[in-house]
Amino acid sequence: MKDLFENSSGLRKVAKEIPLSNVKIKDNFWSHYRKLAREVVIPYQWEAINDRIPDAEPSHALKNFRIAAGIETGEFHGMVFQDSDVSKWLEAVGFSLQTHPDPELEKNADDVIDILEMAQRPDGYLNTYFILKEPENRWRNLAECHELYCAGHFFEAAVAYYNATNKRKVLDIACKFADYISDTFGPEEGKIHGYDGHEEVELALFKLYKVTGNKKYLNLSKYFLDERGAEPDFFDMQWEERGRKDFWQGGVKREWGKTYFQTHLPVRQQESAEGHAVRVVYMCMAMADVAAETGDVELFKACKKLWKNIILKRMYITGGIGSTSIGESFTFDYDLPNDMVYGETCASVGLAFFAHRMLMIEPKSEYADVMESALYNTIIGGMAQDGKSFFYVNPLEVNPEACEKNPTKHHVKPRRQKWFTCACCPPNITRTLTSLGQYIYTVNEETIYTNLYIGGEASISLADNEIKLIQETDYPWKEEIKIKVFTEEEIKFTLALRIPSWCPEAKIKVNNQVVDIEERTLNGYAMINREWKASDEIVLILKMPILRMKANPLVRADIGKVAIQRGPLVYCLEEADNGSNLHEIYLPKESTFEEGFDSNLLGGIVVINTEGKRLVNSEKWVNKLYRYEAEEEYIPSTIKFIPYYAWANRNVGEMTVWVREL
Known about the structure:
Layout: E1 6-7, E2 10-11, E3 23-25, H1 30-49, H2 61-69, H3 83-99, H4 103-119, H5 128-132, H6 147-165, H7 168-184, H8 201-212, H9 215-227, H10 234-241, H11 252-256, H12 258-261, H13 277-294, H14 297-313, H15 345-361, H16 365-381, E4 397-398, H17 400-405, H18 425-434, E5 441-443, E6 447-450, E7 456-462, E8 465-473, E9 480-487, E10 491-498, E11 506-510, E12 513-515, E13 521-522, E14 525-532, E15 536-542, E16 546-549, E17 561-566, E18 569-574, H19 575-578, E19 585-587, E20 593-598, E21 605-615, E22 634-643, E23 655-656, E24 659-661
Parallel strand pairs: 6-10, 19-24
Antiparallel strand pairs: 1-2, 3-7, 4-23, 5-6, 7-8, 8-9, 9-15, 10-14, 11-12, 11-15, 13-14, 16-17, 17-18, 17-24, 18-22, 18-23, 19-21, 20-21, 21-22
Helix pairs in contact: 1-3, 1-18, 2-3, 2-4, 3-6, 3-18, 6-7, 6-8, 8-9, 8-13, 9-13, 13-14, 13-15, 15-16
């Protein structure tokens, strides 16, 4: 029997996106973060790329473009991928303008686009590092120098801004650059038979194809994927051609090997997520896009293998991925250390985007579950509640003294940073928040899938009919979601409501009539098929018990421990509520939980309280490091859990997600 995604001709794309401008979010939880993105983070990033933040290291990103455009004089400064900071800002602006027009912001963006146009070389090339610093070395070190990566982020920005404003200039700049890349790379004689070290251009070319209809961009995206991992090794050949010279001291390639770049095997043969975590999920996004568009079943099956490996063996409970700071990488199955984790914010953003791509092909709730987990835990946890500081690394256990004094934990920070020399994570959060409306619903010819429960309204075209859905909810705090359906005339279609994997019991009523969910559930969605008319109302109750989550016994770091989860939110202990030495706290199996909403704490959260026990460090341990026959003593201790995303918004202190069970 064929999988859901296959038909007689191969792969078929089940769902389509709803235009971002058709979704208006009015949500008690998410509106705060989206407002921060518009009113705080985008302006802050604008100041950062213009080098106007006194206590942050200068970005120089926009100045590099001004110098390349001939507007200013000077030299290139910053990382080799510094251009991408400007592109990510512009992409977030594009998403923001699609839902919240802002003439001043649009004027700033137009001015930047004018500079980009002046900086672009006559042949279409646009990269300030190689324009200003090494013009003779274009495309000579693709393993390390991010040329195609920077191009990809610009293409994504161009598409988002064009969709927002319908202004062609930025799209024309992007197409000119993409045409030059197409003339430079490919299987034909005389072209470069290679690919970039950091996947990104593949998925961006696909977006450019979708907005322009130019199949040249789709074919080039497919070529980059097909060529990856081919023999002889492209990066080895370039290294030899350069006289074995490296860009980064020590040589990234020789230190971490082919798996770091996902070039150890052709993409269709890769069965486990290896190497740099962000690169893996960006590669998978492109694989899913190309597979769905071209009907490539083999490519999609490779996507599924990588997906399963990540979520079943290599993903943190918070939706974080990447177990080590060495190469910001995956390591091996079930290796999920809590205090040494990397869990880069960008990687969770990429995982959420990958999940969305998979959801577009196969409407299965497992994809939306992971997307939701990453959004509610790691992604928003990567930004402070005032929108002015950020995490690059998202640990599940923190001891501030260890972060300061143990060199192997220097990458873990007990407080968010104002900005980064490598500033990829803050703008990735911003573009996620400003594009959030894209992920709530997907639709095919006869079914509207509700993937996320976020308040607001959406206008959806279905079989030549316009349908409006209005969600009202206090999710993730409360269990009830109301969805009102508005149509001009009666229309029969299926409204598919996701039943999350964490929910042990769900109830649905349509116009106060109980719906039998068990008979209607398909792939994790309750399929409500009926003749819908104006003002029909669905009430969905998703029970949110407090769950003691346990890890697979093969996860050594979590054996004998539990994590607390309520709804999509993973909880943690923080020193501000529970004192220091959190490792001494145990949670008895018989402990019961009390939950309550505290409107004055951390922007308003549901806190969870329970009675635990704390190991006593008694006088018997004075002047002793080890003892035999040491009987453990415990004292009762009231403990408080807060949502993981909200940690590190108060004083610097310890934090832990996993707690020992007694």
